[in-house]
Amino acid sequence: MALHYGIASKKYSLQKVIVKYDKISAAIGMIPISRRKVTNVIVMSFVLIWILSATSYIIVMESYPEMKRIFSFYLVCDNYIISIFISFLGALLIIAYAYGFPSMVAMMCGIFYYEFGEILSRFRVRLGNQNRIYSANKMLCELKIHRELYKLSYDLQEAMSLICFFLLCSQMANMYCLLSEFVLTKTEDLTTSQIIEFILLIVVIPPTLIGIIWCASRINAQHQKIHTAIHLLLDSYTNLCNHDANITTYLNRMKEKQFPVMSACGVLELTPKLLLGFFGSLFTYGLLFINLKR
């Protein structure tokens, strides 16, 4: 529910970010690259995982009557094939909502972060080309684009922050709960359904967390590269004999702007350190649970 609320509350902010994406991409002169194939492959991979998981549940369902009743929504059907089909749909719906929906949200967040990183990368290349011909008009154009990127970075942070916070919290809570359940349960008491759920979480959650944090940290890395490029431009220009005060002013104005670090509600900065912290804490809690089990 929290994730639903986060997306609904940021709907218009996301639309605003998309519109700005298009405007800045046109100003930079980026050639639109269709990543539909990659996106389709990722989506189909998730769907295949859901179908395989639902099929696995159906296979072991006969040994667990309560599970069968849950997946069939407590409907009584005399026809065995129809009963299996209803149970399969029930399992698929539960898996899609519990694990599929967060995965799709994670993919959406990753796409937003990745595309913004691409725009920043393109802008950094444009800045690098400015050291060949110093022109006040061209530098003013770069300043305007830099200003729009600066605004867009804050818009993106505002639009994605709450969604990422709820997503990361829900995914990590699932991991911790299942880890505690898996470790504290005796080996002989583990059910096949628990093993299937554990495998499903291991397959789905880590890639989504890694994808979001990698795409967001890529933005932070591009910010640093742009800042470095501006410093190099300013240094190389000041070494020239003939100076244009306007160009120096434009470069200084760009240098003064500090882009925000992508974060989840300002609580979790989306950097590789966060990823190491997540998996490090999982490992630590795993050892703790093992000691408690003994």
From TrEMBL:
The chain crosses the membrane at residues 38-60, 80-99, 159-183, 195-216, 274-292. Keywords: Membrane, Transmembrane, Transmembrane helix. The keyword Transmembrane applies. This is Gustatory receptor. It comes from Araneus ventricosus (Orbweaver spider).
